[in-house]
Amino acid sequence: MKRQNITSGTEWEGRVGYSRTVKVGNQIFVSGTTAVDEQGKVVGKGDVYLQTKQCILNIEKALNKAGASLEDVVRTRTFITNIEEWKAFGKAHEEFFGAIKPAATLVEVSKLIDDDLLVEIEADAVLE
């Protein structure tokens, strides 16, 4: 199967050695995605709901570059710095995935790469 590495163009991909998205056959894997806009600024500082929405919008852009959409997502994995914020996360996740219902994991972590980041989401998708 052919492998396609798709970049978002951020500095981190080159510095750390990863791809935003990897497509192999009909499977698409989106790396951990945070609430950073195209200028590299954190969106929704202090707000898990807004950060979750931005993460998913960023994932949607990555999927689109791979020829997929949110409807193709079969799994999300979310890392959150305060599990007590699960309702705010859940509200945003449901807004995008309520009808799709991917398998999902939510775990608390002690910290993300930037103190202003509260949420990081990975996504896996499968094209028919």
Automatic annotation (TrEMBL):
Superkingdom of origin organism: Bacteria
Transmembrane parts of this sequence: none
Classification via Pfam families: Ribonuc_L-PSP (PF01042)
InterPro entries: RutC-like_sf, YjgF/YER057c/UK114
Name the UniProt record assigns to this protein: RidA family protein
